[in-house]
Design brief:
alpha+beta, 13 helices, 48% helix, globular
Length: 337
């Protein structure tokens, strides 16, 4: 998809680089590959992915293993939701790893010196991949995606030929700000969420908050983002012409942002589920919305903390819980209750 020349034959390619994913999904905070426990939650479905190195003791804490079917293991738990098949050719995947991901990861982990252009094109590559795969709640649109793809391809060619990058960087419509609460996800829960609004992309990705503008002629407009607005306004704009500047946040400040997002996400999820319940209620021949008491019973049962968290997100659980509640409701009506 980058070079648009070779066949995309690579499998299990990370849309988000693995060192970023493991930062906020590693079950033990180690940040090592294959230690991921990743819950993907959307309006329409939930799923869980567990890495190959997650021990049985952790699996037993997440799931009732006696009810964990081989079908669910193969169709859900074994499928890495941040990886895709057949989106890169071997050459493009190697370029991403060697020229961007490996050097940037080493820079973030141990301060290894890197060229000033590497962070710029690293974040560009992450944003572009997330947009074109359409799995992360936003799309930049074809024009921006094609523009980023063109500059990413040009960058790889110029790096490999040791050409001057000044003009490429000068005209690249990609500037960004970066906040970080270093090692937050080693002790706290982390997640990925992105919002594209008014030409600005803002996302939380583990320890980072990234904000991007795709227009060289415009300034970053004010945009709401869970209490991070003041920090984003004061953060330095990175252009790729000097060392990347990251604004460091303390744990308390970052936790407030995270907590604000969690409230927002929980509200969106509840609204989506209530809409689904009302739709089903009406399709069953009832008039109006599902009664409040039935919705309350559904949420209390569906999110029962006595049920292990992995089992709460099972694909068939929604139907099982709702069917039981509606059967009891119909039974009560039959007996005149």
């Amino acid at each position: 998809m980058i070079c648009q020349e070779n066949e995309a034959t690579k499998t299990n390619s990370h849309v988000i680089p693995s060192f970023l994913v493991t930062m906020f999904t590693s079950y033990n905070g180690s940040g090592k590959r294959d230690t991921e426990v990743l819950f993907s939650i959307s309006d329409t479905k939930d799923s869980v992915y567990t890495g190959r190195a997650v021990p049985d003791t952790k699996i037993e804490g997440l799931f009732d293993t006696e009810k964990l079917t081989e079908e669910r293991i193969q169709e859900e738990l074994s499928k890495n939701t941040v990886a895709k098949d057949f989106i890169f050719c071997p050459q493009c995947e190697k370029r991403l790893a060697d020229l961007l991901e490996s050097p940037y990861a080493q820079n973030q982990r141990n301060g290894q010196n890197i060229n000033d252009d590497v962070p710029l094109f690293f974040w560009l590559s992450v944003v572009w991949r997330m947009s074109v795969t359409s799995d992360y709640g936003f799309s930049l649109g074809e024009d921006i995606e094609n523009n980023l793809q063109f500059y990413l391809k040009s960058y790889f060619v110029q790096r490999e030929s040791h050409a001057n990058l000044d003009d490429t960087i000068k005209y690249l419509p990609f500037r960004y700000k970066l906040l970080r609460c270093k090692d937050y996800c080693k002790v706290k829960s982390g997640f990925c969420f992105a919002k594209f609004d008014n030409g600005i992309l803002t996302m939380i990705l583990g320890d980072y908050i990234l904000q991007v503008i795709f227009n060289l002629q415009s300034d970053f407009p004010e945009t709401g983002f869970f209490g991070a607005e003041t920090f984003l306004e004061e953060a330095t704009i990175n252009h790729g012409t000097s060392k990347e500047v990251v604004m460091e946040l303390d744990v308390d400040a970052y936790k407030k942002i995270v907590d604000s997002f969690i409230l927002y996400a929980a509200h969106l999820k509840r609204v989506a589920i209530e809409g689904k319940l009302d739709f089903i209620w009406q399709r069953l021949g009832h008039i109006g919305m599902m009664p409040t008491e039935l919705k309350k019973e559904f949420f209390e049962t569906y999110y029962d903390e006595k049920v292990k968290i992995g089992d709460r997100h099972a694909k068939k659980r929604f139907a099982v819980v709702l069917t039981r509640i509606l059967a009891e409701y119909d039974k009560g009506k039959a007996y005149g209750k």
